[in-house]
């Protein structure tokens, strides 16, 4: 059995963060390990409070897992502070393991999830990453990205890792589509599904990046892993259990089962 490690924040409501990552890993048949960076008190209506784990303990968690398990892939999510970014970088810089980095610092709703002074430091992890998966808000902050901004696209092509920008929308044949764009080797690849009109999208970004990580661990290419992850999320949202009073969680197990049909 392949082993995946997620380094991310904990979501007390179970829909995002390490909980979403572990559910995704299990859906794809991987054994999931975790290193928690922050604890959040949250539910589907929002984050109530955040408690930062000490950087030394974050490092201890990661090293404990790596010492005992043959980890096939690492997914990185919410890091929150400069100090946690520094210890994560210190651990991963000498590893020969695929790393999928979801630079979680602005939510889909535009809320900040990272200390302001840490955004530049976040970029120092790019050279150790196989793929980064920013949403549109994060891509705008990191690269001044917009679809027709040639300067931003040139910046992205110069990065030492591949980049998939998620959560865009496209109108095609009078139908609104959900679009993710992969920039790689001075090219770009587009991945579409129908856009589902729903509020059940809590944790989709976390689950998307961990699904990519899972499939890379299973030997799939980055492009194939993104395509699988895209349809996994589509089906998980389509079959969401409608829980909570806000942005509801998705159905990880059902999302995977639909891939097999």
Automatic annotation (TrEMBL):
It comes from the Bacteria. GO terms for biological process: thiamine biosynthetic process; thiamine diphosphate biosynthetic process. GO terms for molecular function: ATP binding; hydroxymethylpyrimidine kinase activity; phosphomethylpyrimidine kinase activity. It is an enzyme of class 2 (transferase). Pathway: Cofactor biosynthesis; thiamine diphosphate biosynthesis. GO terms for cellular component: cytosol. Coiled coil: none annotated. PANTHER family: HYDROXYMETHYLPYRIMIDINE_PHOSPHOMETHYLPYRIMIDINE KINASE THI20-RELATED, PHOSPHOMETHYLPYRIMIDINE KINASE. This is hydroxymethylpyrimidine kinase. It comes from Halarcobacter ebronensis. The gene is thiD.
